[in-house]
Amino acid sequence: MADLPPLSTEPYKGTRDFYPEDMFVLNHILGAMRTVSERFGYLEYGASPLESTELYKAKSGEEIVNEQTYTFTDRGGREVTLRPEMTPTVARMVAGKRRELAFPLRWYSIPNLFRYEQPQRGRLREHYQLNVDIFGVEGSEAEIEVISVAAGIMQTLGARDEDFTILLNHRGLMNAMMAELGLSEEQGRKLSKLIDRKNKMEASAWSAVAKEIAGEAAATAEKALASEDLGTFLEHLPALAAHPAVTELEEVLRGLAVSGVRNVRFDPSLMRGFDYYTGVVFELFDTAPENRRALFGGGRYDDLLSIFGADKLPAVGFGMGDVALRDFLEVHGLLPDYRPATRLYICRADGAPSEAIMALAAELRREGVNTAVDFTSRKLGDQIGSADKQRIPYVLVVGERELESGTFAVKELATGTETSLSREELPAFFR
RNA sequence: GUGCCUAUGGUGUAACGGUUAACACUGGAGCUUGUGGAGCUCUCGAUCAGGGUUCGAUUCCCUGUAGGCACCCCA
User: pTM of this prediction?
Assistant: First the structure.
């Protein structure tokens, strides 16, 4: 056999390996997502990462599917895509069993999602994303609830109010603004794109482009978009004061205040990229300048089920990725201290029969103590060293002496203190 | 797809264009044999690839590759 170059030990571009310490952090994050979602009455669902490509073509358009997804043809000639987002899947599932499900429907899932792009901070090719969706609620209670879930997750992870901000806007309000400014649909679309880039451009350059698109109306638009609250916004566009979107936004802000979510404000320059949003949209941002990406984003999408031939169904949901969230925790010093699941490491002093150790370990495991056994005949120091390196909190040395006397010394590695216990007392020590 | 930055043992760093590429940690072996988590000794292990400039390249230049960051896009 010819000598082949050794294989790389790097994970595939844009993906991560989760060594136990990393897995611990991931589980910490996903655990908070689960706990809080379930606290609000959301039920977990799941689906395959493989979906028929047409599911995304129907909604996202050819370009995104062709250039930004993992798409291939299977052996049966079917076009297959690794899911780049969960919303089409959940819409498909809900549409499929619409008559059998109990509404309002509260569902969540934490799928791994894939996109073919250049990896960068906060954005990889595979990530985990919590999806929280509520179906069948027309009123603003739906928005208030899902935003509360997101804020609750941030809180559970240790974030304080000043660490993040939630921004709100409304698609209907923006459309009304475009009409009020006398813009055509095409102009409106262009201006929307431009609004999305407002923070990335020089103010003067932005104004120039805005004027190119909207003409005289650009000045009003710019002033209105700079507003940090609804009142100021409406001063620039008084004709919109009676628009239903304004009422909805006010309801959401009031409802969140009542629910204890205070770091939230209206921001007319918030534009979520996708077209399927029909009402309130929202995003959550880190206040630390290192993390410029949204930590989560979502909104109301009442029309999405129509692609499955189903009737309209009111729906509000958001997605929250693990990558940006991890960056957030890191910057704010909120990463948890690693704790292995293993609590006890049994060291074998030379000569002790392994059967006796197995029996003891089995007894402890039956009592719920996560126990690993070192069956090597290494020096005790090396065995203890292994336990310490794995950050296992307790060690138990088992040799002839202990087996004969029935007395065991449990050593806590962090402090070095030893506790002498009989065999019967052992399991209770770990409770 | 575009731009900028980076590339030295497993990891983190060092080396004015000039000895045998240095140091720490990690890994392996040993000394000590029931608590030696340590200490000591020994040891494995690297200049991303190819080309160019030069008496001489880890160092300068070009190309490629890989990674990071940003743009595009953002589900």
Answer: 0.89
User: What type of residue is A120?
Assistant: Q
Could you say which nucleotides of strand B lie within 7 A of any protein CB atom?
A: 1-3, 27, 32-38, 66-75
* Cα separation, A421 vs A294, whole angstroms: 53
Which tens digits make up the pLDDT trace of A123-172? 899 999 999 999 999 999 999 999 999 999 999 999 999 999 999 999 99
DSSP state of A345: E
pLDDT in tens, A163-204: 999 999 999 999 899 999 888 888 888 888 888 887 777 778
Instruction: Identify whether the C-beta of residue A283 lies closer than 8 Å to the C-beta of residue A66.
Output: no
User: At CA A252, angle to CA A247 and CA A258, rounded to 5?
Assistant: 125
Q: What is the DSSP letter of A182?
A: T
Look up residue A201 and give its DSSP letter. S
Q: Quickly give A270 CA vs B58 C1' distance in Å.
A: 50
Nucleotide nearest A321 (Cα, C1'): B75
Treating both helix axes as pointing N-terminal to C-terminal, what angle do A217-225 and A203-214 enclose, rounded to 10 degrees?
Answer: 130
User: Residue A389 CB closer than 7 angstroms to strand B?
Assistant: yes
* CA of residue A120 to C1' of nucleotide B5, angstroms: 14
Nearest Cα to Cα of residue A31 among A387, A394, A369, A329: A329
* A42 token code pair: 């959301």
User: Distances from the Cα of A357 to the Cαs of A350, A374, A399, in angstroms?
Assistant: 12, 10, 9
Whether the beta carbon of A120 falls within 7 A of nucleic chain B: the reply is yes
Element (H, E) at A93: helix A87-96
| Backbone phi, psi, residue A299, to 5° | 165, -170
Is strand B within 7 Å of residue A350 (CB)?
yes
Find out whether A3 and A101 touch, Cβ atoms under 8 Å: no
Of A267, A311, A339, which is closest to residue A28 (Cα–Cα)? A339
Instruction: Find all residues with CB under 8 Å of A110, minimum gap 6, and list them.
Output: A30, A33, A34, A44, A128, A129, A130, A131
Residue A388 CB closer than 7 angstroms to strand B? Answer: yes
